[in-house]
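Ticket #504: bound-state structure for nicotinamide-adenine-dinucleotide.
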Amino acid sequence: MTATLEPTATEAPAETFDSLNPANGDVVGTHSVASKADVDAAVARAREAAAWWGELGFEERAEHLLTWRSVVTRRIAQLADLSHRETGKPHGDAQLEIVLAIDHIAWAAKHARKVLGPHKVKSGLLMANQAATVEYKPLGVVGVIGPWNYPVFKRMGSIAYALGAGNTVVFKPSEFTPGVGQWLADSFSEVVHGRPVLQVVTGLGETGNALCTADIDKLAFTGSGRTGKKVMAACAENLTPVLIEAGGKDSLIVDEDADLPKAAEAALWGGMSNAGQTCIGTERVYVHERVFDAFMTEILQQAKGLRAGADAGAKIGPITMPSQIDVIRSHVDDAIAKGANVALGGAEAVGERFVQPIILTHVPEDSTEITEETFGPTLAINPVGSMDEAVALTNATSYGLAGAVFSKKHGMDVARRIRSGMTSVNSVIAFAGVPTLPFGGVGQSGFGRIHGPDGLKEFTYAKAITRQKFKPIMMLTSFARDAKTDAKVAQLITVLHGGKQTLK
Ligand code: NAD
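RESOLUTION: The complex was predicted; output attached.
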């Protein structure tokens, strides 16, 4: 990605930037840098379109979304190729992420009415004369700022759910994957005959900042915690609510009764796929000491032949963001300097564009390979004396995004004790493909949820309505209320709540 100044047809210089293929530096596309005025204009168009889109109702919106889902499905090869060129990830991986995204569009479309439509709720004894209803209304215009590592799947969690809930969206894709963002907006535009329901503004950080301070009703951010803090600060100016999906340092725990070949397969894929550039990727592995040696033999055996490269035989692509190479190198160097063992790869595995798989063991818990997000194809594998120790070490981080546990007997128990938003038992990353499950983190991994019913509600506000069915037995909300009524109220509340509390 490079920024340049180029003249437009009207002779006025318009700033542009190039997206580059990280495997070889080729220019994939040139995009304009949207200014503050451009962003404000897009948001104004989105505001107008929100009136139409919001009024359509769940059925019609679902029809449009399901048509879009079909269009994306039919053109999956085209989109996967663009994502492959912009991110460098293998074509099959690019396709897999689109497959998951398609399923989420369909889920959001089909379930919006059931989750968000009017629901009758009980009004309680004190208000028995009232009918009570709750429904979830669209916020209006949602700004979405996305990362580059999963340019389709990660954004769809906000875009499809925000649209399904009745909002319009202005999307600022990462400067490393602007083409994918534009492709998504263009294909949606075809479905709604050019109405600005989903628009893209391309650019760098400044364009993102302009979106944060624009007249939007919510900002959904996915990216690093460092940028997340800037986004929150900018949004605070207008009291704009934010959803933050930031980084992680997930662990995979292997118990002594685990299926070791399956656990090793999961750790290897969880750590190395997408060149380790996965927010919910496996970065740490804690293995019960009784099976540590057997696990290491297994994972090193499975890692044979796994390599990064640009050819069809390579299962790992390049590092998409050039600056990450230095971060990966510094984490590996720090771990080795502090006494970690190199089981595979090592410092020399970090190249200029590609990083070959690196597996370190006995990595000191105070090294950056354990404490900070590495975002590269590296695994830190440490032995533990018990599952209690594995849970304690897993939780000894400021992050709390996801994780995995491999155990025949204690998987669910260990999963519940991990302080993170999502955990897979005896598999890795499975939760991301289950549309009904909420996705999001705690601590430095962010807050708010995409996917599932929580993901739809994230882009709405709850609207509560009471309708009086008949006159109240005791009129409480009136200056006509007298001492006799007050005494009756006191009596009633004592009967209702004055006794021994029980849940039965
Ligand atoms: P990043 O924070 O560098 O950039 C994210 C987006 O923010 C980009 O579109 C960028 O242009 C924009 N931006 C930059 N400065 C801004 C500013 N001042 N105001 C507003 N927007 C600004 O992150 P990245 O390198 O694109 O993505 C990698 C990070 O994202 C990793 O930490 C990864 O863990 C995280 N991530 C998290 C999830 C999740 O669901 N929790 C998913 C994918 C990626």
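RESOLUTION NOTES: The pocket of nicotinamide-adenine-dinucleotide is lined by residues 145-150, 154, 172, 174-175, 204-205, 208-209, 212, 222-224, 227, 230-231, 245-248, 279, 321, 373, 401, 441, 445-446 (CB under 6 Å).
TICKET STATUS: resolved
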